[in-house]
Each structure stands twice: as C-alpha cells, then as structure tokens.
Amino acid sequence: MEVETLESHLERHVEDQRLRKLISSFAYISLDAQHHFPKYLRGTLGDKNKYGEAVAKLDEWVNGYLCDSLVKTGLVAKIYSEELRQPLIASANAPFFVTLDPLDGSSNIVTNNAFGSIVGVYAEDLPQTGKRLLASFYKLYGPVNTFVYSIGKGSHEFVKHYDSEGNAKFLLLAENIKVPEPGEVFGLGGDPLEWDPRFLKFAKDLFRVEKLKVRYSGTLVADFSQILHRGGLFAYPSSKKSPAGKLRLVYEAQPLALIWEQAGGASWSEEGSLLEVYRQDVDSRIPVYFGNRHLIEKLQKALS
Ligand code: AHG
Ligand code: MN
Ligand code: MN
Predict the structure, then answer these.
(1) Does pTM top 0.85 for this prediction?
(2) Domains assigned to the chain
(3) Nearest C-alpha to atom 16 of ligand 1 is from which residue?
(4) What is the DSSP letter of 52?
(5) Burial classification of residue 74, based on how many CB atoms lie within 10 Å of its CB (0-12 exposed, 13-18 middle, 19 or more buried)
C-alpha cells in the first residue's frame, strides 16, 4: 500500500484550506532553509536577543529566512518570534498569527547534534492561552528530517523522502502517535543544585524507583521527540535563580504541549496544564513539565 503524503493527510484532516497550506508550506520552507545551514555554522553576532542570550549566525539567518518565507505565503498577519524584539507585522488581512522558535537548540549547532524549529498558529492576535492554538508543528533536523503536526485531532509525524525525480516529499511515519506506557526515558534541564529539593528527590526517584534512563540533548524538540516515542518525562523546572525556568511559554512550551497532550501525555507548569497558562507578556518564560500521566501525578504530589 502506498504511504500517505503530508498533503493528502492534511486534505483528509484539516478543513480550512488556508491552514492546510500554511502547515505544508512550513514543512517545505524549513527544508529549503536546511540546505543553507552549512554556510552559517560558525560564529555569533555581537548582539544579544531579548532574553540576553548570544545570537548565533544561524539563529539570525534561519529567523530571517523563515519569517520572509512565511510572509510570502500571504497567510500570516503577524509573526511573534523568539529572535525578534517586536512582532513582525505582515499582511493585515491574513488569517493567522504565528509564533516561531526558528532555531531550537542553538548550543548544538557547533557540535552537529540535532536541532529544530517550532511553530504555533492562532486565529487571533496574542496574548492567548494555549487552548486557542489552531495548530502547532515542529521540524526536527536530525539524521532524517521529520515534521510533526497537530490541529487538536491527534499528533502525526512525517519524514522527508525523495521521489524518483529527486523531489522532496513528506510521507507519513506515525499517525495518531500515542505516548508509550509506562515510559522509558527522562531528560531534565537546569542546575540540580538550584532546584527545589523536593524536585531533586523526585528526579532521583525517576531512575531509582521508575527505572527510567537518562536522555538529555540540550535541544527541546530532540528531547521531546525522545519522550514522544519512548514515553517518560522531560522537565525544565523552576530553580532558585530562575523561578520561571528557561523555556519560553508561547514559542516553545505551548506548541509542544498541544502535540504532547494530543498524544495522550500530560503537561504541567506548576499551575495546571501548560495549555491553560495565560501571560500578558508574550515573551514570558515558564517552568515546563511533559510526562506520562502517572509521572506528572507523582510530580504534582512531590511538589505539593
Ligand atoms: P534555543 O536554542 O531556542 O534558545 O532553546 C534552547 C533551549 C532548549 O532547546 C533546551 O531544552 C534548553 O534550552 C537547553 O538549555 P541548557 O543548555 O540550559 O541545558
Ligand atoms: Mn528553543
Ligand atoms: Mn531558538
């Protein structure tokens, strides 16, 4: 039987033709971007971004390329990007408001480990809760190029292939992904010496009691892909120095929370599901916890 293409899958599952076009366009736009990566692998710009972090040349270039290409689709009214101090105002009458982490995992550029791009799509301008996400998707530039999307009807993964004419196309790899139970791996970001001692104890129990194996790459989408396919827990918790953690609510946490919850996992932020969180400041950081349901329940008890 022939494997389904991304376009055909979208046709069957996404009613709004404009949303279909935005999702499939991004899959190919990010593929085109990847062809240029080798030119920008070394160096940082002098500037810091709005989070006070050094901007790698590749961060800057990918942000420009993805933003320009998204604007050219004519489907985007505004783009909120992790790498832009102000949102980019595109086509006034276009239907979608987009959030973008253009290059997730900048510290892995030099080491040639996996990194990715994360996108959230809304029908209204931000701020909004994650419950208002129309769609979210991520690209993982790993040994193979995968694309995962959700519109709130399951989470689906595609992988890049070439047809006999050498044209790239995305073929279905996993439909309606379900997080495996009871879960196999965990990854935790930040400094354990700065964590709440109750979280540190919970973390030790992940290998002592739950018998999970450690997996931490330093790229959120890569670590997320580990737990999506193997089950377990990923957290970038609050700490004494950074009560809000490191990860960004709208650029990183909420788009992945939609995909995670649609795959049967539970997300948490110390105040409920990550999708329920609302912050007036679109650039807010948030503690992030993604896990199999029973692990998030244990975590909530441990921290209460
Ligand atoms: P970005 O490259 O978009 O700034 O994101 C980096 C994030 C995320 O990908 C990862 O989970 C985390 O930062 C890694 O942080 P540490 O280097 O502190 O482990
Ligand atoms: Mn990121
Ligand atoms: Mn980034």
Answers:
(1) yes
(2) 6-174 (3.30.540.10), 185-303 (3.40.190.80)
(3) 218
(4) S
(5) middle
